[in-house]
């Protein structure tokens, strides 16, 4: 199976080469403005992207110094809202209680970005609709064609599809690559990371 390993890493190189760096720079500027205005960053993701959201919260808080939250980190509220109000409400109602406002930013991590017609990830869609209503910024790191997120985002990095069989692993892996770029960017990085400080 070593040939599969070669194929997979060839795909990784193709994905990296195809990322739109103009979009990453736009995301940096939006995040810098969010921090400067005292705004907050809300990171939304489900499944593997929820795990990525939790990790990214740490990095944006600790390295960049932006007040950052992921609704999926509170499993009690997440499951209560799912049980009592329904899956589509889990993010939008969380954002309402947090009084999302115009100087905040919502970052979506998603393989598909949500799809209204197919009713895929309605929780992301309703949250983004609210964000746009209040004038908050929307950014995304998404796969496939970017879905609903890409249509409403102020900046979106769409992870290129280089293999229809491996959209999810490449999309979720490159979510981490892109957010690590963001927190490492000279315009955003405020605190030295541990291992780099001990060299």
Task: Please bin the fraction of helical residues.
Answer: 40-55%
Provide the gyration radius in Å.
Answer: 17 Å
Structural class: alpha/beta
Return the CATH topology.
Rossmann fold
In spatial order, strands of the major sheet run 2-1-3-4-5
Most strands sheet: 5 strands, parallel
Q: For the terminal residues, how far apart are their CA atoms?
A: 37 Å
Could you walk me through the main structural features you see in this protein, from its secondary elements to its overall organization?
By secondary structure, the chain is an alpha/beta fold. It has a single domain, classed as Glucose-6-phosphate isomerase like protein, domain 1 (Rossmann fold). It has helices spanning 2-18, 21-36, 48-64, 75-84, 92-97, 122-134, 147-152, 167-184, 194-197; strands at residues 40-44, 67-69, 105-110, 137-142, 155-158. Helix 3 packs parallel to helix 8.
Structure summarized in a few sentences:
With 199 residues, this protein is of the alpha/beta class. The chain has helices at 2-18, 21-36, 48-64, 75-84, 92-97, 122-134, 147-152, 167-184, 194-197, and strands at residues 40-44, 67-69, 105-110, 137-142, 155-158. Strands 2-1-3-4-5 form a 5-stranded parallel beta sheet, sandwiched between helices.
List the helices and strands and how they pair.
Elements: H1 2-18, H2 21-36, E1 40-44, H3 48-64, E2 67-69, H4 75-84, H5 92-97, E3 105-110, H6 122-134, E4 137-142, H7 147-152, E5 155-158, H8 167-184, H9 194-197
Parallel strand pairs: 1-2, 1-3, 3-4, 4-5
